[in-house]
Specification:
Elements (H helix, E strand, L loop, with lengths): L1 E3 L28 E8 L4 E8 L5 E3 L5 E2 L4 E6 L5 E6 L4 E7 L6 E9 L4 E6 L5 E6 L4 E7 L6 E3 L5 E2 L4 E6 L5 E6 L4 E7 L6 E3 L5 E2 L4 E6 L5 E6 L4 E7 L6 E3 L5 E2 L4 E7 L2 E6 L4 E7 L6 E3 L5 E2 L4 E6 L5 E6 L4 E6 L9 E7 L6 E4 L2
Antiparallel strand pairs: 1-10, 2-3, 2-34, 3-4, 3-5, 6-7, 7-8, 8-9, 10-11, 11-12, 12-13, 12-14, 15-16, 16-17, 17-18, 17-19, 20-21, 21-22, 22-23, 22-24, 25-26, 26-27, 27-28, 27-29, 30-31, 31-32, 32-33
Length: 363
Amino acid sequence: MILIRRAGWLSTVFALTWLAGCGGNSSGGSASGHNAYVAVPQGNAIAAFRVNTDSGDLTRVLGSPFGGGTSPVAIAVHPSGKFVYAANQGGNDISLFTISHDTGELSEVLPRTAAGLNPSSLVMDSGGDLIFVTNETSNTVSVYSVSSSDGSLTEVAGSPFPTGARPVALALSPSGKFLYVASGNLPLVFAYSVTAGTGSLLAIPGSPFAVGMGPSSLVVDPSEHFLYVANFGDNTVSGLKIDSTSGALTSALNSPFAAGTGPISVTASGKALYVTNLGSNNVFVYSIDSTTGATTKLDASPFSTGTGPVSATVDPAGTFLYVCNQTSKNITKFKINPETGGLPSSTVTATINSAPASIAFAK
């Protein structure tokens, strides 16, 4: 499961001329590692980097950034490593790019696929068979099947599916059975079961479920036992236990719990939960009790980021956490302590001449 956070502050499309000012030397793909792709809304482009497996450093791919749709805010990489998808908030559509096996360069495949109004978040299932997209203004979720041969998208029967007011983020359970959608205008999460084979959505009994004010991001932990929701409006995180049969949600122990100022992004890896706080420019790290879902903030937490952090993503190996900082226009890299999940060291690993929104990795 690949979870990508939206950057909801970028609803306005900026007409900017953007030069390729990404940090690091350009690379033709010879460095040891894999590729990373960054949605850059104000540049109407996707930046591409080579990731060094050992150091986690990012090196710009030759030719990056690559032009795409209008205001791409969310991004996903197909598990085959052949395709990149971007939700274009200003263009009301989805871009498909093919990835050069040799260099990591991107080539957009036209025409783009129509979505609803203001698509703002995107998630793909672990097999790369389905893509789910929230449409903020349409109050819907679009679902597409993915062609394994050419990456093209086909909207499934019944899509788009109605959901709560201003859906701003979504999370898919690792098994692909359950989809959860945060309503930015309501303190609610809408829950759906995903029909195997077709991708159609059915409301889970009891949905929607109460959370804090202004939910902005959500994540299912790797064990699929708990859902965590960042509540931007009241500086908290809600923890919810997932019923393994129905997907219904109940409050976890000690939920909700305090976060920093303006929690805007939440992600999980192994035993740890990471909450990115836009207002306090930091990341809170919590350990997760595997039985109750209760969290305990690490003693060394919080950890400082750049200014205006809007999203955080753990690399596929679970070794590094990358934070996209919109105001400082850079990406902060943290080395993850494998025992505690803590973030003992950080560096600015890439500087971009326009605000990055989200990052995704090819395995």
